[in-house]
Write a structure and sequence with these properties.
Elements (H helix, E strand, L loop, with lengths): L1 H10 L2 H16 L4 H25 L1 H5 L4 H4 L4 H36 L4 E9 L4 E3 L3 E10 L11 E8 L12 E10 L8 E12 L3 H18 L3 H12 L7 H9 L10 H17 L4 H19 L3 H18 L6 H15 L7 H15 L1 H8 L5 H21 L5 E3 L2 H8 L2 H14 L4 H27 L4 E3 L3 H20 L5 H33 L6 E5 L8 E5 L2 E5 L5 H11 L4 E6 L4 H4 L9 E6 L5 H12 L3 E4 L5 E4 L2 E7 L15 E6 L2 E6 L5 H7 L9 E3 L10 H7 L3 E4 L12 H6 L4 E4 H4 L2 E4 L6 E4 L4 E4 L2
Parallel strand pairs: 4-6, 11-12, 12-13, 13-14, 18-19, 19-20, 20-21
Antiparallel strand pairs: 1-3, 1-5, 2-3, 3-4, 5-6, 7-8, 9-10, 9-22, 10-11, 15-16, 16-17, 17-18, 22-23, 23-24
Amino acid sequence: MVSGGRRWRAARLVPAAVVAWATALALVNAPALAPMVVVALVAAGAGGGVVLGALVRRRPSTVTSQAGGVYRGAPTAVGILSVVVVALAVGAAVGIHVALAQPGRDAALEAFGSGSRVVEVEAIVAGKVEPRAGGQRAFDASIRLVGSDGGALSGWADAAVRVSGEQVSSGLDVGARLRVSGTSRPAYPGDRAVVQILAHETEVVEPPTGILRIAADLRQSLVRAAGGLPGGGGELVPGLAVGDTSAVSSQTDADMKSSSLSHLTAVSGANCALVVGIAFVAAAGLGAGRRVRVIAGLGALVGFVILVTPEPSVVRAAMMAGIAMLAVLLGRAGAGVALLSAAVVLLLLFDPWLAGSLGFALSVAATAALLTLARPLASGLTRVMPAPLALALSVPLAAQLACGPLLVLIDPSVPLWGVPANLLAAPAAPAATVLGLAACIAAPLPVLQSGLAALAWLPAAWIAGIADVASGLPFARVPWASGLLGALLLALVGTLAALALGLPEQSPRSTRVRRGSALLLAVVVTVWTCTTVVTTITQRWGIPRDWSILMCDVGQGDAVLVRSEGATALIDTGHDPALMSACLDRVGVTRLDLLVLTHFDKDHVGGTEAVVGRADTVLHGPTDGSADDRLLADLAQAGAQVVSAQEGMSGTLGGARWSVLWPRASVLFPPGNDSSVTVSIEGGGVPRSLFLGDLSADPQRMLRASIRGVVEVVKVSHHGSADQDPGLYDQIAPRIGLIGVGADNTYGHPTATTLAMLQGSAVGRTDQDGIVAVVGEGETLALWRERAASVAGGG
């Protein structure tokens, strides 16, 4: 009875956290409903309060019992109703926050306009400047619209800003004041940002000052100190210590994701616990009392949050640690679940837009799993292994089971070796964090800093090595169902695994449930293995492993993959999501660093549903109607950064570089074929390539001046239609031509005139050849054809 009462007291705040999260998530996506929802919650809470008051007056002894009473023990009507009233009050408070904030957000949207426009803004960097695909940097900022004279034309608003790598200067950090010229567009519903800004020109007017300048200098000094250290270990030291991943290469990043170790470079609860623990131990070593130890821990925690910047996971962990230390100060040690629930409630009251943050959700899910699931899993695992090993394995397993359904929403695959990789990396992560943090703080003493960074490199190199080996093992990431269905299926598998491993054998009933869960889990895993893993092996057989460009066979449509040093781009998605998904599964691509939607004809974007949640950055051509905007909104809501492409944009893809050659702002064509985004990509193992979308002869002629020298690979425009510019093809003299075209299509594609233009080039066409792939470069450049089962040299 006592243990039941304790569990009840620990869980009393869980409904409040759930209601706060659900209310916040609903209202930030539909803020117009906030007043109505608030009124409903207040009315329900007031009614519940009246009933609760009557119950308390009728049964005062139930509440005031010296022994803790029924209310403080097992749940009763009074206790349950109290929890409901608190939850309703919390939900109403969250709704009030959204309702009060919305007029200011509406005013900002009115000032910036409902569409894309060129603006000049003043910005104050509010979040960490993080690397993004294509060599860009992204950060959150507070911005206001300014005129040519520098005068403010609007109030301050939250914004998400993206700049090219060339614009990033040493002064661009949290707290910096900027002058930005760029293109604005409204952010998507549910985002904290009201406006998105794609910067064309960025000027740092004033670098960070005060403590923010000190924190920025410390972070940058650690990046410099680790920069000379070899391999992936040197790249990971700043990330493991302070969450700075700017030095992490695309290959190391891909390895960390494939091995399910990328969470180690996202500062969260473990880092906060280490910092607070060190401060506590240091204060205790000096003979300080409990109050001073708590103050020292809080001070260290605040300093650490400033140093690493307040990311959602850091804020959640810091809030939970702060509540825990307050409980220590008051002499009331709180249960972990209660502390987590209180942290969630307070954070959502302060910032309802956290409800849509995947990082925040993953952090809460992982923490909840460690608090509630790790111990039962460890107990169950002791049936088949030594207790120390079971305890060590239960922690990453619990986190994997809880976070997997969330992660599969953005990447429909399962890291098969994630748990053993985390088990092997677990001892090294705290050492790398503590030594790296010490190196960061030792910036005023360069010799000491270099020595500490070198020591931190040892455990970091171990983690990088584990990631490299795990990502190279067979089935490092195996395909899984995408979307909500995939999340629900993986949640079911996780639940069965938790029951089979963690349910104690306290009664015949629990034994039957545990054994039944194990049997059902075995059936699910067997069926999945037969239908997915075996299929993956047989389908991938024969495709060259070293391809750099691969055109999927998606019928009458385009879908071309480009790969360099572990980073992958997809140019168009064909007309059918099933065909697009099948191609990605067959070649083992689960994540896209860059997605290019050249234009919005169905044969180029109809398969986009298959990649929603897989893409980091989306470049797109001009839109023409609400359907195009809804497609982009779906991509953005799934985590992609959506950018309208214009001539002159460029970035990196692994070791390759991409450039946008078309459309031009100075040349007006309506949305469609002649406004197709045209990109060139070269370097990093990718031969110089040109992807023409569906451009007709007129824009092709205009494009000639933008291209110098030969192009080794061309994606032939418009599926090989006759509307081509022979002069362009003569100028670029491609060694390989790729044509995405459906068998027996009614358009007569590819036409004889287009094939004649490509005489002397190796031509790969999906109607006859199936999948076609480009391998090698320079003298070894060759074209692989699936149905020809042979390789033809280019030229």
